[in-house]
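pinging the channel bc i need a second pair of eyes. not urgent but kinda urgent?? the chain im working w is below, pasted from the shared doc
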Amino acid sequence: MQPEDLIKGSIRLISLPEVFIKINEMVEDPASSATDVGNFISQDPALTARLLKIANSPLYGFPSRIDTISRSITIIGMRGIRDLVLASSTIDIFSKLSSDFIDMNNYWQHSMYCAVYARLLALKCNALHVEPFFISGLLHDIGQLIILHKLPEMARESHLRAKDHGLPLSQVEREVIGFDHMQVGVELLRFWHLPTTILDAVGFHQRPSEAQDSPLGAAIVHIANHFATRVYPLVPNDNTKDQNNEIDIDPAALEIACLSVDFDEEIREEANIQFSSMQSMFLTKAA
């Protein structure tokens, strides 16, 4: 069995909604304008309302209220809007899953905190586009949910063995299953035709120095995952050093991102504010 086999066997679960597929096509079509995208989104009242809430949230912090989708696209950009639709769609899709040994609410809190923190780090690193870092942070552990859905007993064994022996989950998954959740996550994102930079950030967030297409993305998600684990550990009641392979930050990640050791003090408060806002908008269905 290979990671791609899990994806091929999960088509009904992982297929993105038509609204995202259409928006993605329009964004990638040079002939489509921001007005075209705005008009299409406006046909979906629920999506329109959610995107306007996000545009007016602390995530962006605009001084004046944004009342129309066309205005939000002008400020956030078509690709930014597309990525936010992807985030919303992903949470809607996978919130259908349940588990008796993984706290799904905690999983989404961890992932959303990682997403918000990664976006703030990208801003601090002067990245040109920051939404892909948000998406990478949100989806960095998405392969765990595929394994949970397709191989529940192996997923249980991997989690219990990792917790009992203080081993990295990805290491135990490779021993039990033959591959890890990062490899599965990459195959899912490849199936969704996401950019290789996001695939790289997700696939190498535990080994950022090995990333080829997006070492900055991998480094930022690695760092964001570290702090997300401090706040929302995926394995409750363990100390930070043993939680789900979250040990000290890889010095290579700090070097790649050109970050000093005191960066967390500068963005922690804003991360908490933005997370609180995003949690109320994105995670109500996942709770």
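so The two ends are 32 Å apart (CA to CA). and Residues 236-246 have pLDDT under 50 and may be disordered. — does that match what u expected or am i reading it wrong
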